[in-house]
Design brief:
The structure is a homodimer of 204-residue chains. With 204 residues, chain A is of the alpha+beta class. Chain A has helices spanning 14-22, 37-47, 67-74, 79-87, 104-107, 114-119, 122-146, 158-165, 197-200, and strands at residues 59-64, 90-96, 149-154, 172-181, 201-203.
């Protein structure tokens, strides 16, 4: 049992609001402890329920764990991000599947023609997949934190990553995320400011 | 005090995991109760802390509340989505600001030249802004749920929306989200399946 004070205006408790958003940081140094595939599966099984366009669910996840795979990924990171990938317990490459329509028989059973809507136009598919997969990447970053993990999202050199890892399955890389236990992970500088609601929103 | 049983593999309690992801649904019918600007500000003040590339924070939010503004938005929705916008207590147009670099003096104080990195290339800015704003849109959908609200994300006709609402500030629409109190909101059909971790992930 934990004391659950609700954060002002929220329906979740203060500690959870901190864990998911308010004190969570993009980590650049990592805990020594392992991050298991079971932990990553628990994160996925949580965030897979987040909404995507028509439920197309195009996010795919490459889990980079072995020293060999890590070295292949480091070779396709900008120089400033190489050390982090080298040091992280595990690194995810978040990607989208441009052939997501081949799974719509499973994902959209209530609309038997769903596959055909997307089958003819690869450009439309790439737009739809990229957009929904980035929403899912947002859910996944929150989900990692919900599992007691910290996320260190950053960009890779995606042409190289796609050629190195996705030549067969055709996935397209979107984001690289170092993952560590939250406890023991850290960041480099004080939290930078954000825009206020008044600055970022307009009410009509 | 609430009993806080942790969900398997997670560091948040079961009820919160349900609220944020597992039982939350994309709503299509709405509670009669109002959604206040204060509630929306609390959501924004939670999710503004989520990570974006270099902290560029390009997400902008148009809050469509008055009957007049609602009618202007409905005119730029696909026919199948018009009734939902008409009936929702409040609807958000999530957008990105292609001129986000003009705020980087505030957002990236530790890197004085940050504005200039983006000032010269509008295409790069659009790519960066769209990508980070979609991550933020993912955070926002989770944040609405964290505030006891339900989200109904869907697509609008963005060329028309941009011309109608963003002619002056230059924002670019990305997603339209109906918002309602979770209690009293509902959805139309049973939850569709998702891909398993084994289907969506590859471990190397």
């Amino acid at each position: 049992m934990t004391e659950t004070l609700e954060a002002p205006g929220l329906a979740i408790d203060d500690a959870t609001a901190d864990r998911l958003f308010r004190t969570a940081r993009t980590v650049t140094t990592f805990a020594e402890s392992d991050v298991t595939d079971e932990q990553l599966a628990a994160v996925y099984d949580l965030i897979k329920w987040g909404p995507t366009q028509m439920n197309v669910s195009p996010l795919r996840v490459l889990v980079v764990r072995t020293p060999e795979a890590r070295a292949r990924l480091v070779a396709h990171m900008p120089e400033g991000n190489q050390e982090r990938v080298t040091n992280a317990p595990v690194t995810l490459v978040l990607a989208y599947d441009p052939e997501f329509h081949e799974r719509l028989d499973v994902l959209i059973p209530h609309m038997p023609g769903a596959r055909e809507i997307f089958a003819g136009d690869a450009d439309v598919r790439a737009d739809v997949a990229r957009k929904s997969a980035l929403l899912q990447a947002g859910y996944l970053i929150v989900g990692l934190r919900a599992a007691g993990l910290s996320a260190g999202p950053m960009n890779g050199l995606y042409d190289g990553i796609d050629a190195e890892f996705f030549a067969e399955n055709g996935w397209k890389g979107l984001l690289v995320v170092n993952v560590s236990s939250a406890e023991g992970a850290d960041t480099t500088r004080p939290r930078a400011p954000r825009l206020s609601f008044e600055d970022a929103a307009q009410i009509v």
